[in-house]
Amino acid sequence: MSGGTQLRRSVIQLYKELQYMGREYPGGAVYFNTRCKKAFLSNKDETDPAKIEMLLERGRFVQKEIEALYQLRKYRAMKQRYYDTKEMDQHTKRIEEFIKGL
Fold first, then answer.
1. CA 17, 20, 26, 29 torsion: positive or negative?
2. How many Å is the Cα radius of gyration of the chain?
3. What does each of the 102 residues of the chain score in pLDDT, given as a tens digit?
4. H/E stretch holding 89
5. 19 touches 36 (CB < 8 A)
6. 3-class DSSP assignment, residue 13
7. Contact yes or no for 23/29 (Cβ under 8 A)
8. Which whole-number Å values give the CA distances from 63 to 4, 37, 53, in the listed order?
């Protein structure tokens, strides 16, 4: 298998993974997918393997950033569900009063 077909396969795989990840994007799947498609189409005529490899690395970086965004969103949702801020404030006040009494 030549280097060109391997790069092409990598680009297609990255595109599919990004499209799949875009389904849960906070701005909406349509918004993400159109921006992703636009980015890939703007570089479709690139033939330099080094430049293509650089673009693939950039795409993988974007992929990792999106994963981090999703993890942060899940963490915030869990925190909202399980930690009541009023209750935490009451506990903090009690602890402060206890410390003052010492």
1. positive
2. 23
3. 567 789 999 999 999 999 999 988 888 889 999 999 999 999 999 999 999 999 999 999 999 999 998 998 888 888 777 776 677 677 778 888 877 776
4. helix 85-101
5. yes
6. helix
7. yes
8. 22, 14, 15
Q: pTM score > 0.90 for this model?
A: no
**Residue 21: what residue type?**
M
Place of tokens 């009063």: 97
Write down the H helix ranges in 1-102.
3-21, 29-42, 49-82, 85-101
d(CA 85, CA 101): 24
CA dihedral defined by 21, 26, 28, 33, rounded to 10 degrees? -40
Tokens at 18, concatenated: 């990004």
Tokens of 48: 């330099």
- Fill in the DSSP letter of residue 27: T
* One-letter identity of residue 78: M
